[in-house]
Design brief:
This protein is α+β, with helices and mostly antiparallel strands. It is built from five helices and six strands; from the N terminus they run ααααββαββββ. It has one domain: Roll (Nuclear Transport Factor 2, Chain: A).
Length: 169
C-alpha cells in the first residue's frame, strides 16, 4: 500500500512539472537589461520603442520628466490640446491595456538642436505607429514626434519634458 501511495505521489509531482517549459526569470533588473542608456537621444527612442512594444507603463514613465507636457492638434475643432504627465500616463496606460499589439518604427531625424550647456535638446523625428486592437481593428498613425529633452547636467540621462505630436490622427 505504501509503494502505491508513493508511486501516485511521484506521478502527481511529475504531472505538475513540465521539463520543456523554462522557468520564469525573477531576478531583479531583468527589464532594465533591455533598456538603452538614456544619456543619448537614441536611448530615449529605443526605450520608447520598448515601452510601446512591451506595453509597459513603468518603462514609459521613466522617460517622462515630472513637468512633462503633451501637445496635439485636434483637427475637428482646430485647436491645440495640452495635458500634463498624469493625464499622459492615464492615456498611455489605457492604450497599452486595450491594444493587443503596438508597433512603432522610428524614422529619420528631421531636425535637432542642442543648447550650449548640453542640457536641453529639441529633436523632431518621423514615426509610423501600428495599433492593433484586434485583427479587424487596426489603426495606422504616421507623423512626427517633436520632442524637447532636458537634463540637469551633461552627464545625466535625458528626460522628455515636452512632446508635440504632429501626426495624422
Amino acid at each position: 500500500m505504501r509503494i502505491i501511495f508513493i508511486s501516485i505521489l511521484f506521478i502527481l509531482m511529475l504531472a505538475a512539472c513540465n521539463p520543456f517549459a523554462p522557468g520564469l526569470d525573477d531576478s531583479p533588473g531583468t527589464t532594465m537589461k533591455l533598456l538603452s542608456d538614456q544619456k543619448t537621444p537614441d536611448g530615449i527612442f529605443q526605450n520608447l520603442k520598448y515601452a510601446y512594444t512591451l506595453r509597459d507603463t513603468s518603462i514609459y514613465g521613466q522617460l517622462l520628466d515630472g513637468n512633462f507636457t503633451f501637445v496635439y492638434h485636434e483637427y475637428d475643432r482646430s485647436v491645440d490640446v495640452t495635458w500634463g504627465r498624469d493625464e499622459e500616463m492615464r492615456a498611455t496606460s489605457g492604450l497599452f491595456q486595450n491594444a493587443q499589439r503596438l508597433d512603432i518604427l522610428w524614422n529619420d531625424v528631421v531636425s535637432s538642436s542642442i543648447d550650449s550647456t548640453n542640457t536641453r535638446m529639441m529633436i523632431k523625428r518621423g514615426f509610423n505607429l501600428t495599433v492593433t486592437f484586434n485583427p479587424s481593428d487596426i489603426i495606422y498613425v504616421d507623423g512626427y514626434a517633436n520632442l524637447t529633452l532636458a537634463r540637469i547636467q551633461a552627464e545625466d540621462p535625458w528626460m522628455i519634458i515636452r512632446w508635440n505630436d504632429e501626426s495624422n490622427n
